[in-house]
Design a protein that fits this description.
Number of domains: 1
Helix content: over 70%
Number of strands: 0
Shape: elongated
Radius of gyration: 19 Å
C-alpha cells in the first residue's frame, strides 16, 4: 500500500541520487570559477566572459571522467525501483 511515508522515502532517495550525481560537475565548476575569480582579482582583469569558457570546459571534463560512475548509479537506482514495483502495487 502506498502511504505518505513511502512516497516521502522514494522522493528523498531520488533527491539524494540527483544531488550525488550532480555534485562532481557542480564542485569542479565551483573550484574553477573560484580560481578564475582569484586570477581576475589579482590581475585586475574584469572581463565578464572570461569565467564561462573555463567553467564549461571543467564541467565537460567532469562529465567525461564521472560518466561511468553516474550511469552506474542511475542504472542501479532505476533497477531497484523497477524490481520493487510488486511492493508498490500491494
Amino acid at each position: 500500500m502506498i502511504t505518505p511515508d513511502f512516497v516521502a522515502n522514494i522522493t528523498a532517495d531520488a533527491l539524494k541520487i540527483a544531488i550525488l550525481i550532480a555534485a562532481p560537475m557542480l564542485g569542479l565548476g565551483l573550484l574553477v570559477g573560484l580560481a578564475v575569480s582569484i586570477f581576475q582579482a589579482v590581475t585586475s582583469i574584469q572581463e565578464m566572459t572570461l569565467t564561462f569558457i573555463p567553467k564549461i570546459l571543467a564541467v565537460m571534463l567532469a562529465i567525461l571522467v564521472f560518466a561511468p560512475w553516474m550511469m552506474q548509479t542511475m542504472i542501479s537506482y532505476t533497477a531497484k525501483i523497477i524490481i520493487d514495483i510488486p511492493l508498490y502495487v500491494r
